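Hi R.,

Here's the chain you asked about this morning:
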Amino acid sequence: MARARVTRIALGSLGLLLLVLMGVTGWVLESDGVAVIETTTPEGEVRSTHVWYARDDTGLWLEAGTPTNGWFVDVGQNPIVTLVLPESSERYRALVAEGDAAHAHLRALLREKYGFRDWWVGSLLVDSADSIAVRLDPIRP
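And here is the predicted structure, written out as tokens:
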């Protein structure tokens, strides 16, 4: 009886811990500073994906965690995207920024902007060592 009770308490504690971790992760990913990138799939459908973004004196930057991210695959087929920010929605041409310097620059921008949240994602969820820096160039009418 006592062993069964200890097992139930341990399982309940583990379940509670998992719920807390899921809640923190949800907050980390979606709470603030999130944009929506709208890309066009190879089938011609619009894909809307929540992304983190950073801004510097050259413009806007995004990070593709892997080359298989859906929105990044779409950009390979059609680099024209719409980025929906809290204050605006604009069309851009997405350009892969090659090289270690671009990657390091983007990672520094994201660390500065997102702080603990960037640490949480990079430490617990995604290895950003091989992520891809994407610069967005505005399309002017």
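One quick note: The first strand starts at residue 34 and ends at 40.

Cheers,
M.
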